[in-house]
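REVIEWER CHECKLIST
Item 1: Sequence provided? yes
Item 2: Single chain? yes
Item 3: Sequence as submitted:
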Amino acid sequence: MNIDDSRLLRELRRALDTVAGQGMEAQSAALREVLVRHDATLEDVARAVSAVKERHRRELSGLARRLARLADQRGEDIETADAVDAFLRSLKRS
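Item 4: Structure as written out by the authors:
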């Protein structure tokens, strides 16, 4: 997604927000005006939306991987702490 895609989507959202509650005709007119101003088509909008979804999917996948690594590390830390605790308790009993 490039900067023009971001701007297009932002302006489409703003146009819809501006005419919210004014009916379908007003919304269609607002969207057409933005598309004309950007020399864009509905295919351009669909491509931009798909790019945003893909970027978000990648970001969420990356976040899930990082969280899984943290959970694994936390599990290892707990196992290590338990082992050290058991070792220290065994020394006290000796």
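Item 5: Key structural point noted by reviewer: The mean pLDDT is 92.
Item 6: Recommendation: ____
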